[in-house]
Amino acid sequence: MAISIYTDMYIDEMEIDKNKIILEISEASYLRPINESDITEKYIDGLNDSEVNRFLVGPRSQEQTIDTVKNYVNDNWYSSNAILFGFYVADDLSGTVRLHDINNDTAYIGIAIFNKEMWGHGWGKKIIASATEYAIYKLGLDILIAGIEKENYASQRIFTETGYMHDKSFDKKQGVMSYVYRAH
Length: 184
Known about the structure:
By secondary structure, the chain is an alpha+beta fold. The protein is built from five helices and nine strands.
């Protein structure tokens, strides 16, 4: 999969200029870090949908409001070790992918597509591939880890199809499997 990465980003002890990152997936779809101005009712409603948040720890633990989502988005925007990318199709925010706990060689990755019309069309795989390529080739990371609940077979399949493998040595929580992508 060819993915174009447009960025004038700089890395200085993991400081990233989030205003300048755009990861093109296709002609009309891309990833870019989201900020408070990107929050919509559609985004909040999606996070509150029980089918969407079934495997999302934060959103399923409490109802999401404009304030909880603003706090989450701002925490990620101002974090020096996290990037919350919005997934846009025709400039419509349809999901997110997050790189977090980024350090010199490792990060965690998680995905949520809250526009259910996008489900089953291969977007998850494209989003994960774009974020993975960015983490490996632009951030210089060696290992990405996705913690996936054992019952979340769709995520397990999509991460496996994107080159991640279950690695029991990274499993930390009961009921959560760690899928790991290694650059080398």
